[in-house]
Write a structure and sequence with these properties.
alpha/beta; 8 helices; binds NADP nicotinamide-adenine-dinucleotide phosphate
Length: 255
Amino acid sequence: MATSPFSLQGRVALVTGGAQGLGLAIAAALSQAGAHVIVAARNAERVHAAAAQLARHGGSAEPLVLDITDEAAVDAAFAHVDAMHGRLDILVNNAGARKRSNMAHLDAADLREMLETNLVAPYALCRHAAQLMRRGGYGRIVNISSIAGQVARANDVLYPATKGGLDALTRAMAADLGRDGVTVNAIAPGYFATEPNQPMVDDASVAEWLRQRTALGRWGQPEEVAGAAVFLASPAASYVTGHVLAVDGGYLAHF
Ligand SMILES: NC(=O)c1ccc[n+]([C@@H]2O[C@H](COP(=O)([O-])OP(=O)(O)OC[C@H]3O[C@@H](n4cnc5c(N)ncnc54)[C@H](OP(=O)(O)O)[C@@H]3O)[C@@H](O)[C@H]2O)c1
């Protein structure tokens, strides 16, 4: 039987923030598609638990305790990946930070801090990954952005700027790395029921607002972002680059 163009068999993937929420759902789906998944985040207990969970479901996974804003630790992590696997085929820049407030309460230092996690660190990881991908002859970078990169609301003044920057960086890196056979795309999730959103998930008025505001009329579940990531990471997406794919229940398409 011919190999599915969605198969990730034999690929090595690194998912930042892969220990919970959207990152864990993406890590699980990449692993189900056949990739060996390196699950990276700061909390050691959680990364070990996530890697063990993927293994229990028949996948191949390993934990990596990493703060993506620590440059020296990132350098060491990529040296480790190279030494252990000799390749990296897929990078999912999923770890993200958000402080929700307005201009009266968020200053330039807050913007710098959020940019470090949402833009500077993903760029540093992409530079490392691109080196291994060029050498390995296969490269898929998937940046987890947000619909907030394209639309904004009051009381959330900085996060959209960091994600809009990530969208622009995705296009710029796609242009830069295309000749090397490395594709760079982003996913813009809408409203997903993950831990940081739990207070909103518990608020019936938010559910009612989403019922009216999105085409599908509901919250997204973390697993629902994962198919897009597998597609963008797979051979099936070989001619897709520089794209920001909304996975938002029709939020951006509907008003
Ligand atoms: N949930 C949504 O509705 C939604 C919508 C649009 C976009 N997004 C984006 O999707 C991504 C994941 O969101 P989520 O809701 O799944 O978030 P989450 O549940 O808070 O998970 C974030 C993950 O990132 C890790 N992380 C944070 N800072 C890190 C750092 N400096 N170094 C390494 N790992 C770090 C966290 O683990 P540690 O704390 O252990 O490091 C955690 O595993 C984010 O980029 C977010 O902006 C989410």
